[in-house]
Sequence to fold (494 residues):
Amino acid sequence: MREYSEQELVRREKLEKIKDLGIDPFGQKFSRTGFADDIKNKYKDIAHDEFENINDEYTVAGRIMFIRKMGKASFFTIKDKTGLIQIYISVNDVAEDAYSLFKSADIGDIVGVRGKVMKTKTGEVTLKCLEYTHLVKALRPLPEKFHGLTDIEERYRRRYVDLIMNEEARNVAFMRPKIIRCIQKFMDEQGFVEVETPILSTLLTGASAKPFITHHNTQDLDMYLRIALELPLKRLLVGGMEAVYEIGRVFRNEGMDPKHNPEFTLMEAYLAYSDLEGMMDLTEKMYQTIARDVIGKMKYNWYGNEINLEGPWKRISMVDAIKEKTGIDFKKDITAKQALDLAAKHNIIVEDHEHSVGHIINLFFEKYVEETLIQPTFLYGHPIEISPLTKKNPDDPRFVDRFELFIGGKEFANAYTELNDPIDQLNRFEEQIKQRELGNDEANDIDMDFIEALEYGMPPAGGIGYGIDRLCMLFLEQESIRDVLLFPTMKEKK
Fold:
């Protein structure tokens, strides 16, 4: 059993005294008629003297964040989900035993107040307490510093304390759901249907990533937590749903850094009879809708850059972007040996499974281009070797109809003109197995059921995946994914 601090011991003594008064120290249902910010906004423009003719009463509840105890009258501030409101309490307005109960309160306690709205001489909207209700005794003191926890790791581990003390963290927590609701409303209005697909799978498919592995006891079967949403959603296109999307958790057994968390929220959307251009138009419109309807601005400060979401956004091919930076034209016919020589000349390390021209093109992009794409840019025309699920470009089959959206030098979305040729798809799957044999442990399995689905006929389609956490990072101007996740994955505390 841990040792209690002096403050904690005092709070536990007060807990027993509350019990002795016949009061439940951890409260019961409490009905509210108002919230802090709503009350303050309603009365903020009314002059102090006009409150003599206003007898409006509200019942509020929240956590005590500040107390100024005096003799027979005191001020305290409570915080609810909308913000702070000041309370004036006097022994003349509440029973003496109620005032005595208030005097024993600590910062962090949760209380209820019925009060008459008033305004102090300094102009602060305040409730004059007419009825005071103890609800919950806080047995631990809040951090002394008003801005909250100073240890950033502890902020993430004890998010509940961070939300109490840190206004920016509270704002992010409330804004993220609004962004997701906006996305859902936008997609619904575009004619998409939101669906749910399985999290557990017996195959590793849909993306290049290391999976988390679990075990199904009844079937004595190892299973994967999904790394993507793609193949089940494309099966729905085969079934005739035509426009579908899903927002859900995916899991990748990889490292953690300010941009990555092992579990994250992904949205994938698929639209029959569309293509790459359709996905670009959809994406630009969605981002601008969020910016306008939720945040209310088009320019964002992120990683030291001013990002402007006003259109039209730049569209450029991968090989043209590389040529701009290096002068090398990978559109020309080039052998694998020539590509390897170019890589060696530019000090680019090539792994055993990356000896194709396409893989080397991608390595050049990562070294010379990726971090330079600051303003929203659709980068298209990826080599076929790094895009196993994507339709070949009809004009140059070395490349596929795929784009990635880059903002601030970071990837935000990945889109395809979807591959719907079952023969080509099977060949690509088989190539992935060869890649695995060469040491690529992120290569896909062969999903024969998906091949069968394609053999029934999937309409031409555009598809896209969005990292919702990174999208929220941009709109909320946060530089760590942990700041937009309420409960990020943390290393075990020893």
